[in-house]
Design brief:
The complex is a heterodimer.
Chain A lengths: L8 H4 L7 H4 L3 E5 L8 H11 L5 E5 L5 E2 L2 E2 L13 E4 L3 H14 L3 E4 L9 H17 L2 E3 L5 E4 L6 E4 L7 E8 L2 H13 L4 E6 L8 H10 L5 E6 L5 H13 L6 E5 L13 H5 L2 H11 L2 E3 L3 H13 L8 E5 L2 H13 L9 H10 L10 E2 L6 H12 L6 E6 L7 H13 L5 E5 L6 H9 L8 H19 L12 H10 L3 E2 L2 H10 L8 E3 L2 H11 L3 E6 L12 E5 L2 H18 L7 E6 L5 E10 L3 E8 L4 H4 L2 E5 L4 H10 L3 H4 L10 H17 L3 E11 L6 E3 L2 E5 L1
Parallel strand pairs in A: 1-2, 1-5, 5-6, 6-7, 10-11, 10-12, 12-13, 13-14, 15-16, 15-17, 17-18
Antiparallel strand pairs in A: 3-4, 8-9, 8-11, 19-29, 20-23, 21-22, 21-23, 24-25, 24-27, 25-26, 27-28, 27-29
Helix pairs in contact in A: 4-5, 7-8, 11-17, 12-17, 13-14, 14-15, 15-16, 18-19, 20-21, 23-25
Chain B lengths: L2 H16 L20 H15 L5 H6 L3 H12 L1
Helix pairs in contact in B: 1-2, 1-4
Classes of the chains: A alpha/beta, B mainly alpha.
Chain lengths: ~725, ~80
């Protein structure tokens, strides 16, 4: 079978992305095909043939004359014509040989379907390393191994290089998945929902091409409007976030919806600090995905519900929803769900209600949610829809239908499809039920009007689209390093060995980075402590400093509110003596003396070097409430002032900081600056593994944000 | 049985089971990559070698053998 070579569509448009050979190859060799139907190697070849691929396909099957009546080749090197893409289905132990020949042949991209690599243990990992090296040596873009394959529905390409049973419909949604098995389920589900795809990629072990390169390709792909990602393992979290920001925040932004499953167990040492225990990969993921404009969802259903709404309907101009229903109960439920999701269900303007009054019965509810009453037929629905669509207070519409004996379901569905043709605002429907409403749902889906069995799902989808809209409106900042005394910080850090810095050293590092550290001194005797206390003024605090004493309170290593010289002298001597008894092994470096900090809100600023994301920053309600409420948020460091502002506003405690219940507001801008400075610090010094400022005391007025305790752990 | 004889009969079996021409088969030929053995055919090959030479081989060890030359060595060792 020698089909004429198609010109890949993207090349016509002048695009020469490295992944073009993967998605729009002019020719494909399927390497390791067998003549046995029902096996993966056969099915992949058969799927390419039967999907109507527009290029040329070559089966490579040593010892076979032909496969499916197509002349077979012993080796890829025996093919006379150039080959853009190789799909390799050989057993794992000979994939390296096949790739070596692909490299010699000049193949530009390869999809390794075969399993038996990293996922099976050390021997497989060794094989994977080997094929990675071969691909990198020859410059082959590698998808897989251990994957389902790649699909491109572009009518100019039509490539189904996968063992998914059916070619999906053509659409504007790209789906990327680390799980191959999930892909087949998603394809089947999408077919049922009549949802089409632009590109469909299962990337398996991601030994070569990862979601990061795929994001870049799909951002430039004119046939893709929205990207869906199912991810199990984050290897380069920072790279992912940076690539996602380019996609969601570029000049032609495209949304990304992602499911990130699988939670990495945290290293035992990471749980030593507050930040360590709170900053698990999953909670960091939530926050940094949000900051990159990635909408994290928890199920395939939720993902498609939102994707379809975005892909098929115009973006709304706001979050104001009109609900048109023939049943009161579902209308109220939908209203509750909408408000819970952050949408509003506003009052309609009087003209809208006036327009409906003539067309609807007296018993109808003309207020939002509009109830056209149970016996409504298509005419009433349409009258209400015409009226609410023209209402200036309304940005989007949800139609709810319950199947009652007189409800002409198909006529209403047809009416909505027709009405939608001239509608500038997004509309979606919830025809509640299963059997009776099925024909109406089919009509809606064919017309690309999103349908949801439950109105709550519709609201959730609209809320996700609202998130996309809000993200695009969000101001973007750029990190500008603040002037800091990096040299002093470097001297302290370079001189210290791995482990925790002494408190005075940690405070000195923070001071060098411009935080409002109170004056402090490490004293070796009571006279020294008294002199220093006099110089800074009473009351003061004493804090034991010893590398072996982590929890100071437990050994009586803190004395607060010492009002005069005598109190300082007594507290100092008692503490020194007590520590000698309770912790005789501890090497006491001294007792830190500093002024008592006036009370304020206790906040936490933390930082941690995450294996996937690199330096990350944490902010939230601190002190004893940290673990109790877990009211914290995360961001990648360094951070710009705008993002710091968002971070501060993401925690529930922000309302306290603004000045709740008559208390004066705190210096929020100062807190933001602290975050920028700490972010800069952890980004500057790779050795900082963890950092906790807990509490940061936030008081009223300028310079009100004072670190009362600081821990820095060096690697 | 000398090694040449073992090799001659191995090639004969390989050609019969895998349906390949004798000129395709060299000592370096990889059963899967060069001769196109499918997984079931690899099992058939092991059985055919056992019949041909009247020996019993450990199946897992036999399936580890990847090319014709190694198969000749493997069988020759069993015949000793």
């Amino acid at each position: 079978m020698n089909v004429s070579v198609a010109e890949p569509s993207a090349e016509k448009a002048g695009l020469h992305h490295p992944l073009e050979a993967l998605f729009s190859p002019r020719s494909v060799a399927v390497i390791g095909v067998t003549p046995t139907p029902g096996t993966v190697p056969y099915d992949i070849f058969y799927n390419i043939l039967s999907s109507g691929y527009r290029g040329t396909v070559y089966p490579v099957a040593p010892g076979k004359r032909s496969i499916c009546a197509v002349r077979a080749y012993r080796y890829v090197l025996d093919i006379d014509e150039p080959v853009d893409l190789a799909v390799i289905v050989f057993p794992a132990n000979v994939v390296d040989k096949a790739l070596e020949q692909c490299g010699q042949k000049g193949v530009r991209a390869a999809v390794v379907i075969s399993a038996g690599f990293r996922e099976v243990g050390p021997q497989g990992a060794e094989r994977e390393k080997r094929i990675k090296e071969i691909c990198s040596h020859y410059g082959i873009s590698l998808i897989g191994p251990n994957c389902l394959g790649v699909i491109n529905t572009d009518p100019k390409v039509r490539l189904n290089a996968s063992f998914a049973r059916n070619m999906p419909l053509c659409g504007r949604i790209a789906f990327l998945s680390q799980s191959g098995a999930l892909c087949t389920a998603v394809l089947d589900y999408a077919r049922h929902k009549q949802v089409g795809f632009s590109k469909f990629v299962s990337f398996g072990n991601k030994a070569g091409v990862t979601e990061i390169e795929l994001f870049d390709y799909l951002y430039h792909d004119s046939l893709t409007d929205i990207i869906l990602l199912y991810l199990e393992e984050l290897r380069d979290g920072r790279g992912l976030i940076e690539a996602a920001r380019r996609v969601t925040g570029g000049p032609q932004p495209k949304p990304i919806l992602a499911i990130k499953s699988g939670r990495t167990p945290q290293g035992a040492d990471a749980a030593a600090s507050h930040t360590g225990s709170l900053a698990g990969e999953d909670s960091i993921c939530d926050a940094v995905f949000r900051e990159a404009g990635i909408i994290r969802v928890s199920s395939i259903e939720e993902m498609f519900n939102a994707a379809v709404l975005y892909a098929y309907q115009p973006l709304p101009e706001g979050n104001r929803l009109a609900i048109v229903t023939n049943a009161g109960g579902p209308g109220v439920m939908a209203t509750d769900a909408a408000i819970r999701c952050g949408l509003s269900v506003p009052r309609l303007v009087p003209e809208t209600m006036e327009k409906m009054r003539g067309a609807l019965p007296a018993a109808a509810n003309l207020k939002n949610p509009v109830d056209v009453i149970g016996d409504a037929r298509a005419d009433r629905y349409l009258a209400a829809l015409e009226a609410v669509a023209a209402d200036p207070n309304i940005d989007q519409i949800l139609v709810i239908l319950t199947p009652q004996s007189m409800t002409d379901i198909e006529a209403i569905a047809r009416g909505i499809c027709k009405f939608r043709q001239n509608l500038k605002k997004p509309i979606c429907c919830s025809f509640m039920g299963a059997v009776d409403v099925e024909s109406g749902i089919q009509l809606l889906q064919q017309a690309q009007i999103p349908h949801y069995i439950l109105p709550e799902w519709a609201c959730e989808a609209m809320a996700h689209v609202e998130q996309i809209r809000q993200w695009r409106l969000q101001p973007r900042g750029e990190f500008q390093p603040l002037p800091v005394d990096k040299e002093t910080a470097r001297r302290i850090i370079d001189a210290a060995s791995a482990g925790y810095l002494d408190e005075d050293q940690a405070l000195a590092v923070l001071q060098a980075y411009g935080l409002n550290v109170p004056p402090n001194k490490l004293c070796r005797n009571a006279d020294e402590a008294v002199d220093f206390a006099k110089s800074v003024g009473f009351p003061v605090v004493l804090r034991i400093v010893s590398p072996q004493i982590f929890h100071k309170t437990e050994v009586g290593g803190i004395a607060l509110n010492l009002a005069d010289e005598t109190e300082v002298r007594i507290a100092f001597s008692e503490m020194w003596e007590r520590i000698g008894k309770v912790a005789p092994q501890a090497e006491v470096r001294g007792i830190l003396v500093r002024p008592m900090i006036p009370s304020g809100y206790e906040l936490i600023i933390g930082a941690k070097r995450d294996p996937a994301f690199g330096p990350t920053l944490m902010f939230g309600l601190g002190g004893i409430y940290v673990e109790l409420f877990g009211d914290v948020t995360f961001a990648l460091a360094p951070i710009d002032a705008v993002a710091a502002g968002r971070m501060v506003r993401q925690v529930k405690a922000f309302r306290l900081l603004e000045g709740a219940r008559g208390r004066p507001p705190v210096d929020v801008q100062g807190i933001e600056e602290c975050l920028v400075r700490v972010g800069q610090l952890v980004a500057d010094f790779e050795r900082i593994a963890e950092l906790d400022i807990n509490p940061l005391i936030a008081g009223a007025g300028p310079n009100g944000n004072v670190p009362a305790d600081a821990r820095i752990r060096l690697a | 049985m000398d090694r040449n004889e073992v090799e001659r009969r191995v090639v004969k079996v390989v050609c019969r089971v895998l349906g390949v021409e004798p000129e395709m088969v060299t000592p370096e030929s990889n059963f899967v990559f060069d001769l196109g053995a499918e997984s079931m055919q690899s099992v058939e090959l092991v059985a055919a070698f056992e019949n041909e030479f009247g020996i019993e081989m450990d199946e897992n060890a036999a399936l580890e053998v990847q090319n014709v030359g190694a198969a000749v060595d493997f069988i020759a060792a069993h015949l000793k």
